Amino acid sequence: MKRFVYINDDESSQELYCDNRISNRKYTVLNFLPKNLWEQFSRFMNQYFLLIACLQLWSLITPVNPASTWGPLIFIFAVSASKEAWDDYNRYLSDKKANEKHIWVVRQGIRKHIQAQDIHVGNIVWLRENDEVPCDLVLIGTSDTQGLCYVETAALDGETDLKTRVIPSACMGMDFELLHKIKGVIECPNPDKDIRRFDANLRLFPPFIDNDLCPLTIKNTLLQSCYLRNTEWACGVAVYTGNETKLGMSRGIPEPKLTAMDAMIDKLTGAIFVFQIVVVMVLGIAGNVWKDTEARKQWYVLYPIEGPWYELLVIPLRFELLCSIMIPISIKVSLDLVKSLYAKFIDWDSEMIDQDTGIPSHATNTAISEDLGQVEYILTDKTGTLTENRMIFRRCCISGIFYGNESGDALKDVKLLNAVAGSSPDVVRFLTVMAICNTVIPIKSKTGAILYKAQSQDEDALVNAAARLHMVYVNKNANILEIRFNGSVIQYEVLETLEFTSDRKRMSVVVKDCQNGKIVLLSKGADEAILPYAYAGQQTRALVEAVEQYAQLGLRTLCLAWRELKEDEYQEWSLMFKEASSTLVDREWRIAEVCQRLEHDFEVLGVTAIEDRLQDGVPETIETLRKAGINFWMLTGDKQNTAIQIALSCNFISPEPKGQLLLIDGKTEGEVCRSLERVLLTMRITSSEPKDVAFVVDGWALEIALKHYRKAFTELAILSRTAICCRVTPSQKAQLVELLKSCDYRTLAIGDGGNDVRMIQQADIGVGISGREGLQAARAADYSIGKFRFLKRLILVHGRYSYNRTAFLSQYSFYKSLVICFIQIFFSFISGVSGTSLFNSVSLMAYNVFYTSVPVLVSVLDKDLSEGTVMQHPQILVYCQAGRLLNPSTFAGWFGRSLFHAIVVFVITIHAYAFEKSEMEELSMVALSGCIWLQAFVVALETNS
Amino acid sequence: MTNTDRERHRERETAFYLFTQQRLPACKPVLTPAWVITIFLFTGFIFIPVGLVTLRASRSVVEIVERYDTECVPEPFRIDKVSYVQDDSIPKNCSLSLKVRKYMKAPIYIYYQLDNYYQNHRRYVKSRSDRQLLHGWKYHATSSCQPVEFNNNQPIVPCGLIAWSLFNDTFTFIRERAELKVNRKNIAWKSDRDHKFGKTVYPFNFQNGTLIGGGKLNPRIPLSDQEDLIVWMRTSALPSFRKLYGRIEEDLDADDVVVVHLMNNYNTYGFGGKKKLVLSTSSWLGGKNDFLGLACVFVGSSSVILAIVFMLLHLKSRR
């Protein structure tokens, strides 16, 4: 359960924990062959082909040379094995590079240069600026006198801003010498993959100053693969090494996704297999009967009178081998090949390159392009997906006065500028909260301009807006903040930071004014997380009004508040907070509880409104895709009003007369149940009317609905083409995807942030927008695109073409194999049902591998309709959605076609030499060339362009 | 236009760029009714004449087919034909007389035809060794020849069921007391003679001992000159087949009577097969084969009919 790391102890932990050798490899040199073969043979198709190939080794029953199956089989295996081997070799090389990197480590009290792979748990590792962190470390010293350092965590979570890391208080003020000799123990949980949590304790051994338990959080760690920035040096104790680091643990191979089409092809393969067994049994019995009644009379065949025990099996097995080509070995290769081409087409598409950043679209998962054409539900995130996630401060309301309502930009509002110039106390306090109630790090560039590194776009917008209003956040030096306002410099000391969590929906800082020593609590957060905690007697009517008004305009609102704290109140609370911070169990919950004790009796200062603009082309894209019969659900963590406004402005829902919004709300089970039933009733009535009905549900009601009224909610989900779910958590997003998937809908989830990752992984197709919230979503996704509007092209052009092409290719593969197989079956009727193969091995192999598999590859460029036509008439997508090009009935069509073609070829063949004059090899060549010509003709006929 | 612009422009022109953007030029024929009707008519007008010409060529061939397997067994033996044909002590001569109905122009091909004889049976087809036929008994990997591989621990050349069951009826043709000259050379494929059957490979241990099937071979003639064997070894694809026996290089007039003296050695009685003798002339298209002509006429006329139907439909409901 727990791990005890003894700092700087060279012996104790060496055997207990693994060394720092990173290994991403799937195989080793020794186990490659068996493991890879085992993996490949876990697929049914491969088992089938292996069985056939093995049966062919028995010369008594094989109709053709075993090479005709072994050749392609070995080829296929070699191709996929060498692909795996190549990938694994590259992984090995990059591992080796990381493992052999030289790192400074303390050994026996002396700093040594060793390879990264020799780091052990408990070692002290020294890093310099811009070094990559080799394993998970607990920070114990930095060059900074305050014990701060900065890291870039892009490789871990995709966020490009710098994060502050701080040394634990117990190690504060140690110098070089001391750091070499430090001894102690870190009590930390066993390795896990949560990169946002590290609940541990540190205890230093005497003679070190502090013998107390010192709590450690994620803020005290340097995680593997992060980079040290803006800090001269740092050192830390290795706590997790090798593959046991947070990054190593979170690495995992995602489960391969199977497209609807693959499932259908598997089903059809199964049907063909059953058909094959039936044919084999019928022919096998017929063959044995014929053998016993006729063949024994044919003296020239010289059948032995007494056969071996397996004699009855010989003829059926021969037919099994003869019919084995019914399931074409080439289909897997062809499909893999064309699928990777579809993916390449997406990568190459110059119309899907994000012009702003120059990032092209990318298909990470190359196997599921067809599914894009069969999407029925799109679940989309709002912020950053539909909107640009470029926050701009637009309006504010300070103590009941609205700014920016006329011009639409508060920064240009003369009233506000005058108030700032006049140092109106309310406005100054408001601006102070804007400027310092955050986790932003100001960085002075060489030119003197100040850049802000912010974790959230909202904070960035607020700090920048405050700077424009002359409240400039200048510098952060450890705990001392410097603010310049109208020429004077004000300093604050940060005492505590109460961080933002999605449950609390607010963040606060406790600061001490260095001039007068007053302690103040500054808070900002969602309206429902601030307004209820205003001090008794404050008039919040104007604020509520402001929040509503702004939300109607589609703006994001934040309430700002503050409260003066008394010295002893703070001291008392501070102790509780420390205690909560050092708990190992349920730390997050305990902290939230303690925070609650401080965050009340606010004086609410005002409301800010931040605009998040819609991305280009979002309304058009949604309209087009909606026409294509795709249903949209919006899942957002934002407020209901804001969500509805955004939904209106991007054509998601229609305004009143045409559309209708149904609300599901309620705080208790009963309320939710009633409103759910009401909505369901309305939905059933209006389902026949041409009216856009959408329902809106918030996270709370959704939780209850999913828990207790799943059936009713599922019915609602099926009836409704549009839904808005606001204030939902990441896991609820994933639950909704799961719900739609359970109703057999093809779902596509699109999002841009870390909170969308679960839904993206859950959905049939995950699309990530490589936007401003980092690359986390784009990495987890099957497709990453730069802008929401590319979705239209991704689905209508790439998805649709892929579906059409694969539908043709897969059925054609079966068709061409069936033709030749039927001819073999017909021939067996005139060759005494003995299982003679009309075709020789070379012909069969050439037919399957060369003559028919190569020409059909032109279909990857086939377009039934031009891109323009499809975009103009997106309704055509319904053919793909309903799977009308590949289903049992179309397959039956191809089956009939192959039967007919086989009959024609066979009849012509046996009569071409006037029946009696036919000679085996002549006949086989005529039949083969007949088949080849017919195949070519079919390909030409079925190709649309 | 800067350099990079020009480069980019040039890149846009390349075929690979067009390929990556899926914009390679393509033609997309639109199947209008007029086009469809024209294509069908065109097909019809090509196929009908071709078919008629083929049919005419096939009809010009004269063929005489005479079944002899029952008649050539003397009356007393007809109850048990198998023991008759297997009994070496009974002479197997037999004569037939064929009446020529129509003038037959030389060369007249002589075929023997076997019915209900499965040369395409899997056991049979596989039972040969092409390498041995070419290289002789020095070639040892002849397991495919089973069960006719060894006799008295000596390899058999040529081995296998096919060679072992060689057809051994012989025919001589007499017209008005004079023997018709039958050319028995060049009846096998030249490529077979030159490349598939060894010039230095002589029959060895063939039809010896317990395993006696069909005809014997002269052990002093190399396989490449044993043309009957070469013809026989080209296995037929269907259970009724004809194989070339020789050529008569004289014309036969109408109402000529040809007497055939034959040795009825080959056993088809065990499995109820028929034996027939065929005399046939040839046209520029080969032997008699009505099928090709009929098929062409059928395809041609059905496409003309389809064209007419389409035309009527199109005229009726023009859009």
Automatic annotation (TrEMBL), chain A:
GO biological process, one term: phospholipid translocation
Bilayer disposition of the protein: Multi-pass membrane protein
Annotated ranges, domain P-type ATPase N-terminal: 5-70
Keywords from the named record: ATP-binding, Magnesium, Membrane, Metal-binding, Nucleotide-binding, Translocase, Transmembrane, Transmembrane helix
Single GO cellular component term: plasma membrane
Keyword Ribonucleoprotein applies: no
Cofactor: Mg(2+)
Coarse class of the protein's main subcellular location: membrane
Coiled-coil residues: none
P-type ATPase A domain mapped to chain residues: 100-162
All copies of domain P-type ATPase C-terminal, residue ranges: 778-944
Transmembrane segments: 44-61, 268-290, 818-839, 894-915
MF annotations from Gene Ontology: ATP binding; ATP hydrolysis activity; ATPase-coupled intramembrane lipid transporter activity; magnesium ion binding
Protein's cellular compartments: Endomembrane system; Membrane
Binding site for ATP: D381, K382, T383, E459, F500, K524, R556, T636, G637, D638, R727, K733, N755, D756
Family stated for the protein in its record: Belongs to the cation transport ATPase (P-type) (TC 3.A.3) family. Type IV subfamily.
Name of the protein in question: Phospholipid-transporting ATPase
Organism listed in the record: Durio zibethinus
UniProtKB/TrEMBL annotation, chain B:
GO CC, alphabetical: endoplasmic reticulum; Golgi apparatus; plasma membrane
UniProt keyword annotations, A-Z: Membrane, Transmembrane, Transmembrane helix
Top-level division of the source organism's lineage: Eukaryota
Transmembrane spans: 30-52, 291-313
Localization annotation: Membrane
Main location: membrane
Family: Belongs to the CDC50/LEM3 family.
The protein's name: ALA-interacting subunit
Source species: Durio zibethinus
